[in-house]
Design goal:
The complex is a heterodimer of chains A (about 400) and B (about 270). Chain A is α+β, with helices and mostly antiparallel strands and about 400 residues long. Chain A has helices spanning about 40-50, 90-100, 110-125, 140-150, 170-185, 195-205, 220-225, 230-235, 325-330; strands at about 5-10, 15-25, 30-35, 55-60, 65, 75-80, 155-160, 190-195, 205-210, 215-220, 240-250, 250-255, 255-260, 270-275, 280, 290-300, 305-310, 315-325, 335-340, 345-350, 360-365, 380-385, 390, 390-394. Chain A is built from nine helices and 24 strands. In chain A, the strands form five sheets. In chain A, strands 13-12-11-14-20-21-24 form a seven-stranded antiparallel β-sheet. In chain A, strands 6-7-8-3-9-10 form a six-stranded mixed β-sheet, sandwiched between helices. In chain A, strands 15-19-16-17-18 form a five-stranded antiparallel β-sheet. In chain A, a hairpin with a 2-residue loop joins strand 16 and strand 17. In chain A, helix 2 (about 90-100) runs parallel beside helix 4 (about 140-150). Chain B has about 270 residues and is mainly α. Helices cover about 80% and strands about 0% of the residues of chain B. Chain B is built from 14 helices and no strands. Chain B has helices at about 10-35, 40-50, 50-85, 90-95, 100, 105-115, 120-125, 135-160, 165-170, 175-205, 210-215, 225-235, 240-265, 270. In chain B, helix 10 (about 175-205) runs antiparallel to helix 13 (about 240-265). The longest helix of chain B has about 35 residues, at about 50-85. The radius of gyration of chain B is 22 Å and the shape is globular. Classes of the chains: A alpha+beta (about 400), B mainly alpha (about 270). The interface of A and B includes residues 51 and 150 of A.
């Protein structure tokens, strides 16, 4: 089934919760709606579930009007953050609920229902738990019951609203892997709402990053991480060092770091560069444009070390990530001074001075001597005598 | 034993038991002692009298019926008050408590004035052959009135705490509105509904003030058991009054235990622990 959402808008008391959202979903796709609270992701999910309706816009499922059907007719499987199990029913009765409420004509026989419940409990690894009540299960088990209950009605669309939000970290990671495997097995079109980017990056085929009721970017986890479409996505996904870029004499620079190859343009109100912590090179040669940095702190987090670097020439503290073993190898000690330079950056020319919402141009900047990246889906055209690689879009 | 944050288990339990003993058990013991004065033969004679039996039947059957009515309409009122927002909701909510606050005699007189054959409502019902005041329906009406707040007030917090997700889950699983109500919402409310039912029942069984005004107190027809007790007192038959009181007490106790068992069974899913 192909789901096509066009120009969906929804307002609550005048405040837009969804603002002209369009999105297409391919059959069997696992899509994550990622955003902070109030970004409209849950509103979108509720509209898909039929629990809410948009003020404007359409949703079509295989060309038919999806919004015309009532929630109970849509055949969507819905899983809530707080499980929403029927606490007065046993696990088996919970799973069977969607089959038992069918009209007598379409209701399977008792034996068929029991068999189906048994299969589903096996699928969610809860065999032998059928006679228990939800109160007797752990959070992870409850959520698996909720999933089995949703799958019992053979939905054409599975909607998960922060399904792991109420679980502790370890269970969350286990359940996440398990859900991914289940999805690969069932090939069920799935929409997954989360505020946890790690979850979205790990699970989803595609991610829609939402902010203030709008979709900022839709793409694969790699595209979202490596080619953020907007300043918001830059700041929201992963860690980023944000640098204010000066535009003067036809070139862009941040202190001694010159973004060679990018056209400096005086008509941009503001230019900002985003550099990922892992894209900062440490101990670069004096001849290369870069900054002198002073190491303030080292946070060793297992395999990765997070460094806090103070750069006096631009008056900013940047974060850099290096491998844990490199800390000793490079002799990184607090107080040490060395030269650092970004290997790559995402650069935005902003229209308005403080409007991070709109930007006029976007470039992907790559240091001239850096290893050329693997070919990408979007066009990355070399500009300026092949000394730098930069792509642009607006 | 688990460590407790607040100390004083022994002291508070001792105080609670003493208090319960003084306020509840001591008068009941006195009642039992007084009732024993008439002896077994006197007891049987008292219970065998058709007038006593008719009064007990009206008191208990009427209270049952009143409690059932209160459970139904109390659920409806609690539902409306919790689920919907409408102008005057707070006023409506405050009105629910009025049967508690009103002196029962006032309620009884007001109901009588309304439903008497020449009253505001009664005069329209009489031509249809419906008699409410001075007949069993009047007794039940007064019992409904005094027991009404119990069901509403016990249900309200539980209804307010119900998880809306659960209803949405039921809907998306294909349940109709009725199925959602009867299969998802009502079963969770039953234990609380029974609490309210038991309170309304107990109140109705013991109600005196409002009922005697509207009942007309015709022996064998609209005479309630508490009135019979008062009559015995007026005849200085203290032992007989106490014995009748004892019978009512035991019957009420048995009913309340039965309801409490039913309540535990209906809420068995809540008591389980992992």
């Amino acid at each position: 089934m192909t789901l096509q959402l066009s120009h969906l808008s929804r307002r609550f008391a005048g405040i837009p919760a969804l603002d002209d959202v369009s999105l297409a979903m391919a059959p069997g796709e696992f899509l994550a709606l990622l955003g902070s609270s109030g970004s409209g992701k849950t509103t979108l999910l509720r509209i898909l579930a039929g629990l809410d309706y948009p003020d404007a816009g359409t949703a079509q499922l295989d060309g038919r009007d999806f919004l015309a059907a009532e929630a109970r007719e849509r055949k969507v499987g819905l899983v809530f953050q707080h499980y929403a199990l029927f606490r007065h029913l046993t696990v088996a009765e919970n799973v069977a609920f969607g089959l038992r409420v069918r009209s007598r004509k379409s209701r399977p026989s008792n034996a068929a229902i029991n068999e189906r419940v048994g299969q589903l409990l096996k699928r969610v690894q809860l065999e032998g738990y059928g006679r228990r009540y939800p109160a007797q299960l752990s959070g992870g088990q409850r959520q698996r019951v909720a999933l089995a209950r949703a799958l019992a009605v053979e939905p054409s669309l599975l909607l998960l609203d922060e399904p792991f939000g109420a679980l502790d970290a370890q269970v969350r990671v286990t359940l996440r892997r398990w859900l991914r495997e289940l999805h690969e097995e069932l090939k069920l079109t799935t929409v997954f709402v989360t505020h946890d980017q790690e979850e979205a990056l790990e699970l989803a085929d595609r991610i829609a990053v939402m902010n203030h009721g709008r979709i900022e970017q839709v793409g694969t986890p790699e595209a979202i991480y490596q080619q953020p479409a907007t300043p918001f996505v830059c700041e929201f996904i992963g860690k980023m060092n944000k640098l204010a870029v000066t535009s003067a004499d036809g070139r862009l620079s941040v202190g001694d770091w010159v973004l060679d190859g990018l056209p400096g343009n005086d008509h941009h109100a503001q230019v900002v560069a985003y550099v990922r912590p892992e894209h900062l090179s440490l101990g670069v040669a004096e001849t290369r444009p870069g900054w002198t940095a002073r190491l303030r702190h080292v946070y060793l987090a297992g395999s990765v070390a997070h460094l806090e670097l103070h750069i006096p020439s631009i008056g900013q503290t940047l974060e850099a990530d290096v491998g844990g073993e490199d800390v000793a190898r490079l002799g990184l000690q607090v107080g040490a001074e060395f030269r650092v330079a970004p290997r790559s950056a995402v650069v935005f020319a902003l229209g308005e001075p403080e409007g991070s919402q709109s930007f006029e141009e976007r470039w992907f900047w790559q240091a001239a001597d850096a290893v050329p990246p693997a070919p990408r889906a979007t066009s990355v055209s070399p500009i300026g005598e092949g000394r730098a690689r930069a792509g642009r879009c607006s | 034993m688990r460590r407790r944050i607040l100390p004083g288990f022994g002291l508070s339990l001792g105080y609670a038991l003493t208090y319960l003993g003084l306020i509840v058990l001591l008068p009941l013991a006195a009642l039992a002692w007084k009732a024993s004065g008439i002896g077994i033969g006197g007891m049987l004679h008292l219970l065998g009298s058709p007038r006593t039996l008719a009064a007990l039947r009206l008191s208990f059957a009427g209270a049952m019926l009143a409690a059932v009515i209160n459970a139904g309409f109390g659920l409806l009122v609690a539902w409306v008050l919790v689920r919907y927002r409408f102008p005057g909701r707070r006023l409506f909510d405050a009105l629910v408590d009025l049967p508690f606050a009103l002196p029962t005699a006032v309620a009884g007189i007001a109901l009588t004035a309304l439903y008497a054959p020449n009253g505001w409502l009664g005069r329209w019902l009489t031509p249809w052959g419906i008699q409410i005041a001075y007949a069993p329906p009047g007794v039940i009406l007064a019992m409904v009135f005094v027991g009404f707040p119990f069901v509403v007030r016990t249900l309200q917090p539980v209804l307010a705490s119900l998880d809306r997700d659960v209803e949405e889950a039921a809907e998306s699983l294909g349940a109709s509105h009725l199925q959602t109500f009867f299969r998802v919402i009502l079963p969770v409310l039953v234990p609380t509904l029974l609490t309210g039912f038991a309170l309304a029942l107990a109140r109705a069984v013991g109600e005196y003030g409002s009922v005697i005004f509207i009942a007309g107190n015709i022996p064998m027809r609209s005479e309630i058991a508490p009135l019979l007790i008062v009559e015995k007192l007026e005849e200085f038959d203290y032992a007989g009054a106490a014995a009748l009181g004892m019978v009512m007490l035991l019957a009420s106790f048995a009913l309340l235990i039965l309801i409490s068992r039913l309540q535990r069974w209906s809420g068995r899913w809540a008591e389980l622990q992992r």
